[in-house]
């Protein structure tokens, strides 16, 4: 019994020790993991270099050079300089390696910094705090050995998209997939995507993958707001894929991205018209013979890549309408055949025939035949490619240039020059010609100090730099295509091979005129058609998120347009409701100026509420109000317009008039707050029941700050001995003279000094009379007269 108890106790002791040992191992492992996590979290290459996650390679390199020079241990005696230098170097290595940088952006670590050396199959970063072993759970997400490994080489960043993809999309289309972690639908389309990508890559189509979790900025720039999404980019324009994700639909989507009219269908009827257009288009022409009824996608992609250099046509061998072409050029119907035609439309300049043509073969074939034997210089881009600038590591390139004309009389010389170019086998020489009338600045430089009476001339030149400097030598005697001219030119070219110094003239050429600018309207029409088709496609597929901003802009513009028309219509109707009786009274006003009858025509009178005109006037704005009566309206408005004309350019001044016959009570209530400016005479105080004459007064009203400035009529027509004193732009009459002057004051003299008062108003030196609250206005509308500059000019005509 005792032995059993002893054994049992030993077993329990052993178990306890094992438990303690396991707990100790687990604690050590956790501590090690925390240490690794802490060290990994502390090391951030972006923070070490002080750059953002979207920094370009050029920025990273520039910062690295500066920091490496600053923290180099040989120059920096700081004890931490060596460690800092190691961190800087390590950060630079990570951020300049696309794979390591992508790995760090995705997992917070690189292949060489994973905990415990487990690589991507060990402990993985999860929510910035936790790590777990994915290989144990066989989880499909964030596994470099799974779908992310296949997409890693296609991963796009924002700067890469802007600097590489967009410019390259003018030569080849791009197919981009928008994905994210934890996207189950992305997993479902993965097999189809992989199969399609493998085939599209062989055709030369660009592939890209954007992870929304790490490239939200790029996803927003592309307009992708859900995952998964597939889109195409051609000529910098983004188009979304809306159909079921199957290989056939994706291939058709790529084909639909390409512009129309890239390849022309050629038959026996139109082949001569197609081939003879080389002179007008200044391009070689390529014909592809094949048995399939539709143009192969590879051929369309080639036509898109070389659209600026070559014109493409397609001949369906299965049609009876192409039988004559097949016999004429002896085409083998068992394999695709490609012919290149240059100046000779009866004989191809080059031919290639092979089963299953590959992209590399076609590209090499087209690249070797990009130009005519003697092309016409139609723009600067073509000139730069035909006659490149001399480089030290390249052989010299000489350009033999014929200066000629378009008329029929130049045909003989042009054909002789072309025959000489056709016989040329020297890669150092390039033959070209220009029409003098179309490239006059260029020809003026080359023919300076030469006999300009010669109809055609040949110039041999070599470009020295990109700024236009050249060395050149005109061939003496001009050019008419005779045997002597050919012999003379060949001798000059042989001398040039032996002694380049015969080019003894130098000049700076201007940039060539673009002779195809007249085709801009046609290209614009085609572009507008493509955009319209895209909008219709978006509407059909309910892609409202992308279309909504455009629709919002259109409806806003329509609303503003029609709203303005409606307001103008109501304004015009209110203007036409002027009473005829008032017009008759105004015409009988005393001593009206010759322009008085036309004043009302040039003052735009609108009904604007008293509240918006004064009480709620915008801060900083002042309403200048002329006080008048019906009999004095035309005369005072005419004078008012002349005095304030120079101030109408200010956006903070508004000009109005107030009929004191209708609103005398409001006028009196406002002027109660300016009693010190009124200086009412004792006689008038005694006759309090007598109505005051406010005609000719001007009020400057600041509705926001609730103050006014007052202008009182100034008499300058009589009693010159008296010297009125201005106050607030008005005058202080001597005591006892106000009543006599009011009866004799001429109406058109009341505003004589208004211009000076306006200057003081703009300077802010006038006295201000503050109003606790603006008086109520019995009639809601106040008449406003907007004195626009054009109105006043017309008025003074």
TrEMBL record:
Subcellular location: Endoplasmic reticulum membrane
Biological processes, Gene Ontology terms: autophagy
Domain J: from-to ranges: 44-108
Keywords assigned by UniProt, alphabetized: Autophagy, Glycoprotein, Signal
Membrane topology type: Single-pass type IV membrane protein
Segments of skewed composition (Basic and acidic residues): 577-588
Pfam family for this entry, one: Thioredoxin
InterPro entries: DnaJ_C16_autophagy_reg, DnaJ_domain, DnaJ_domain_CS, DNAJC16_TRX, J_dom_sf, Thioredoxin-like_sf, Thioredoxin_domain
Principal subcellular localisation of the protein: endoplasmic reticulum
Record region (Disordered): 577-597, 720-744
Protein's job: Plays an important role in regulating the size of autophagosomes during the formation process.
Record-given protein name: DnaJ homolog subfamily C member 16
Lineage of producing organism: Eukaryota, Metazoa, Chordata, Craniata, Vertebrata
